[in-house]
């Protein structure tokens, strides 16, 4: 069994083509999704009921598996088998990447109010593949006070805790989700600090 490098696809791309084996002569070629234990095609016939899969060949030597409207469940190992004795096969991995998406229903609303000297936690949740990193920064470029002991320009983590907040910390905070799959996304949260006088 021969292994090939990963083939990449972005979620919802129009198509992904996997070419794993050149086949000698007039042999029967089958494509299998190993992780799902599913036979996809045998020779020129599509076996699976998923219409997103198709097969083609440009000559008797090269067979191509096409996956249209790529989904996350398409991620995994694919095997191309040729009916020789012994069987010839080659395996490749389709990596499906998903751009980050901020989950508004699990994140802090776009505007919050807090009394001066109180604590507040800003939450920003995101999904995607690979798992996105969450970074916070102030829109005005001012540093963020972390634990009242240190100041940072960028804070990493899905929860930003502001302790004993002061009026100088009011303003817009940006939550940025990134996972190396464009585009990065952001959410703007305005923090209003209510002063006693």
Automatic annotation (TrEMBL):
Keywords: Cell membrane, Disulfide bond, Glycoprotein, Immunoglobulin domain, Membrane, Repeat, Signal. The keyword Signal applies. Its main location: membrane. The keyword Disulfide bond applies. It is found in: Cell membrane. Residues 100-186 form the Ig-like domain. GO terms for cellular component: neuron projection; plasma membrane. This is Ig-like domain-containing protein. The lineage of its organism: Eukaryota, Metazoa, Ecdysozoa, Arthropoda, Hexapoda.
């Amino acid at each position: 069994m021969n292994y090939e490098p990963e083939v990449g696809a972005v979620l919802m791309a129009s198509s992904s083509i996997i070419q794993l084996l050149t086949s000698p002569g007039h042999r029967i070629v089958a494509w299998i999704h190993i992780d799902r234990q599913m036979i996809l095609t045998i020779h020129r016939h599509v076996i699976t009921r998923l219409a997103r899969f198709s097969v083609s060949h440009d000559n008797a030597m090269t067979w191509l598996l096409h996956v249209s409207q790529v989904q996350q469940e398409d991620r995994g190992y694919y095997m191309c088998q040729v009916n020789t004795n012994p069987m010839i096969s080659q395996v490749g991995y389709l990596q499906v990447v998903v751009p980050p998406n901020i989950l508004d229903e699990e994140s802090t609303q776009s505007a919050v109010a807090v009394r001066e000297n109180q604590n507040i936690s800003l939450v920003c949740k995101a999904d995607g593949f690979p798992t996105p990193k969450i970074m916070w920064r102030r829109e005005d470029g001012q540093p963020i006070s972390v634990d009242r002991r240190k100041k940072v320009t960028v804070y990493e983590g899905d929860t930003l805790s502001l302790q004993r907040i002061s009026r100088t910390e009011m303003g817009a905070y940006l939550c940025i989700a990134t996972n190396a799959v464009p585009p990065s996304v952001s959410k703007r949260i305005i923090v209003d600090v209510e002063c006693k006088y």
